[in-house]
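Replying to the earlier thread about multi-chain prediction with a worked example.

Input:
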Amino acid sequence: MQIDWLFGLAGGLLIGLAAALYLLVNGRVMGASGILGGLVDGTGRDTAGERLSFLAGLVAVPAVAAPLLGHAETHITGSVAVIVAGGLLVGIGTRLANGCTSGHGVCGISRLSLRGIVATVFYLLGGGLSVLVFRHLLGVI
Amino acid sequence: MRRNLFSALAGGLFGLGLAVSGMTDTTKVQGWLDVFGDWDPTLAFVMGGAIVPMIVAWRIAARRQTGLLGTALPLRSDPAISHNLVLGSLLFGIGWGLAGLCPGPSVAALGYGGWAGALFLLAMMAGMVAAPALRVHIDRLAAT
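Result:
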């Protein structure tokens, strides 16, 4: 669609406002992998309420908004092997790197954090190589 | 209580942004990464749009000690670029390209992503459980 970039920009601004709110009110970096990861591995047990509240909002609002916007189709692959491999790699990788697209990308780059910028370079590199190999060379995605 | 309320608000706003931008659609994410195919630039607009309010927010944060609810604001992290940062980001990127989902959108799509979306989320959480043990092995290898 021609106006996809406009939805992208508007959605991006909302994401940035969410991160700004989380930083200036709650005093925390809005990183999705860190918020979820701290619950999953138990390191964030003392802030579990705050983490669960964040995740509840993150699930509830799109569940209502995405269908209204016509964006409720994920087009995710039906291949169990690809889904499981992808999920494991994203889970392991973001916890090793201590951040993902929101923490290192949005919150890190805006602060000119060297770690955020280096992480972003390498996950973009990994993602580009992944699509090149698995889509164009092997044809599995 | 207020802390949880604002946290839910931030999560909801983040989810709204992901829904508006279409970032829970794996074809748009993989399209962005597909430099040699039918390239889709949308993600660059999302990232650019998200960074702008945060540049302002970090400037405000620099003049304060704590957030409005009293928590100490995060200090700049150690600038050291570790092997875990590089290796982890590469692995994350490979998985991101494979499935077209990163952590935020995988949670945001739970309400409409069907069994495949839920399976991805479960696998990702399993990876998060496994990561600390893997990190010990990697650190040991790196030290030798």
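Residues 2-143 of chain B form one domain.

Feel free to reuse this layout for your own posts.
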